[in-house]
Amino acid sequence: MKILLTNDDGIQSPGLGALEDRLSSDHEIWVLAPDNERSGSSHAITLKGAVRMRNLSPRHISCNGTPADCVLYGLLGVLPERPDIVLSGINIGHNLGTDIVYSGTA
Questions:
Q1: Is 3 helix (H, G, I), strand (E, B) or coil?
Q2: How open is the CA angle 23-27-31, to the nearest 5 degrees?
Q3: Which segments of the chain have a pLDDT < 70?
Q4: Residue of 43, 25, 26, 33 lying closest to 90 (CA atoms)
């Protein structure tokens, strides 16, 4: 299965790395995540300004935009093929109650 991983804690997040490590033995993993922490940006997309992608290594791409930008651009052609599923996480900290309204990792 082709899986796109993203989060709102940034591409260097240990939770994202742990999720990739766990899934990579059985699946083709692509990581497309914000270049820095973007907690609380939830469904936000970049409407003004350039959204830039940076290839860090094979199947690891950082984006200067939001988590939603990462998924949107991943589905629209940054990845060579559409993923079968998109997973977001593992979050740093808690996502409890209404946190899931604005979290980009819930």
A1: strand
A2: 70
A3: 93-106
A4: 33
* CB half-sphere exposure, 3, CA atoms < 13 A: 18
Residue 39 to residue 9: CA distance in whole angstroms: 6
H-type helices in 1-106, by residue range?
A: 14-23, 67-73, 99-102
Which H or E element spans position 30?
strand 28-34
Q: Which of 43, 45, 34, 35 shows the shortest CA–CA distance to 7? A: 34
Q: Residue 95 has what pLDDT?
A: 62
Q: Is 7 in contact with 36 (CB distance < 8 Å)? A: no
Ordered strands of the 28-34 beta sheet: 53-57, 60-63, 28-34, 2-6, 85-88
Q: Please state, in angstroms and rounded to a whole number, the distance separating the CA atoms of residues 21 and 36.
A: 20
What residues contact residue 63 under an 8 Å CB cut-off, 6+ apart?
Answer: 32, 33, 34, 35, 51, 52, 53, 54, 69, 70, 73
